[in-house]
Amino acid sequence: MIPLMKSTFYKEKETRAALAEFILKDNYLSMGEQCFEFERQFAKTQNRKHAVLFNSGGSANLALIQALKNLGWIKEFDKIGVSAVTWSTDIMPIIQLGMQPVLVDVQPNTLNISSYTLADAIKKHGPFSAVFVTNALGFCGDLNIIRKMCRDYGMLLLEDNCESLGTETQYGQAGSFGLAATYSFYVAHHLSTIEGGMVCTDFDALADMLRLVRSNGWDRNVSPTAQKDLRTKHAITPFFGNYTFYDLGYNFKPTEITGYLGLFQLQYLPEIIQIREKLFKRFYSVIESNKDFIPTRFATLETVSAFANPVICQCESLRDEYLKRFHDVGVETRPIISGNSGRQPFYTKYMGGVQKLMGADFIHNCGFYFGNCPDYTEDEIEIILGCLHGVVS
């Protein structure tokens, strides 16, 4: 099989050897200086003031929604617009925390929410308290216009940038447009810490609340100023401050292993992005020339840090034919994330039935993706290219 991802880490041998040495020598493997240094360095790569590390990307998403609710920036029963083609952990926290997710349709040729689909959703449902966009598979919509729309309507803009680390638009990095952005460091992502996630933001109050949410609601890792303010407000002495819990939180702390791996892999990030973009463009040149496919549009992107290679076929029967081609030669494939999230069992259970959306349904029925693994051999690349050639219809 030609898998989506061939190894746990980029530079697998070097990373495992360094990790083994670190574990043998380090005396303190709970969250500590390795995690905090990874936060500092990752924030620099994203040109953000703060980065807060979590034990998974899903935890980062849940913590972000919880932190916004704790701050009163979003409230119970608020409507939150969310990309219809996304991962479950973007939608589930909204339901779990008592708000109403409203799926915003996407454009099949970008895989993402656009200003047009967002305008349609606002026209139908009214302005949202927040809009949580997913920059899917290394691509994004017209985030500069979406940002302006959110400002005009008073909506918070959040970005799930788990699949688009390193993607650059003409107006800035994907993940830099909103109040906050989330990232995943699961094994198949651009950076691997085995499990791990991050939230980046420029807002001090949000960063401190995220740190509080991450650690059971206590103040151990918030800024000294925030800690002093909390203890003064609630008349907490230093003795009781060790076990005082100020707001709703979880145990989402990472380990020093996560922090160490993040720092070690971060040195390779420019190389990883370069390889992923080069591979994507090589596959895309064949996809673009095949009339069975609808090419993904990325003209406004200066760097395409592709998580995977999307294939959108003209119809469902063609999708099935190409899936068979890939399967027959052992190339692993996946749906385009969730397809239409409005057709997922958890969504229909809690939101009262299937939600039909033209763009998301088209992607659901006619799309799939194959990997964009930096470790593919030339022989493996040629096998994949062979699957994409030729008119089947």
Q: Give a quick account of the main beta sheet: strands, pairing sense, barrel closure.
A: 7 strands, mixed
Q: What is the H/E order?
A: HHEHEHEHEHEEEEEHHHHHEEHEHHEH
**Backbone structural class:** alpha/beta
Tell me the CATH architecture of the largest domain: 3-Layer(aba) Sandwich
| Low-confidence parts | none
| CATH topology-level fold name of the largest domain | Aspartate Aminotransferase, domain 2
Please estimate the helix content. Answer: 40-55%
- Number of DSSP helical runs: 15
Ends distance? 26 Å
Mean pLDDT: 96
**Number of E-type strands:** 13
- Rg (C-alpha, Å): 21 Å
Question: What can you see in these coordinates?
Answer:
The chain has helices spanning 12-25, 33-45, 57-71, 88-96, 115-125, 143-153, 204-214, 224-233, 238-241, 256-266, 269-289, 316-328, 345-351, 358-366, 378-388; strands spanning 50-54, 79-83, 100-104, 130-134, 156-160, 168-169, 172-173, 180-184, 197-201, 301-303, 308-312, 333-334, 367-371. The chain is of the alpha/beta class and 393 residues long. The protein has a seven-stranded mixed β-sheet with strand order 1-9-8-5-4-2-3, sandwiched between helices. Strands 7-6-10 form a three-stranded antiparallel β-sheet, with no helix packed on it. Strand 2 (79-83), helix 4 and strand 3 (100-104) form a beta-alpha-beta unit. The longest helix has 21 residues, at 269-289. The relative contact order is 0.17. The model has no long low-confidence stretch (mean pLDDT 96).
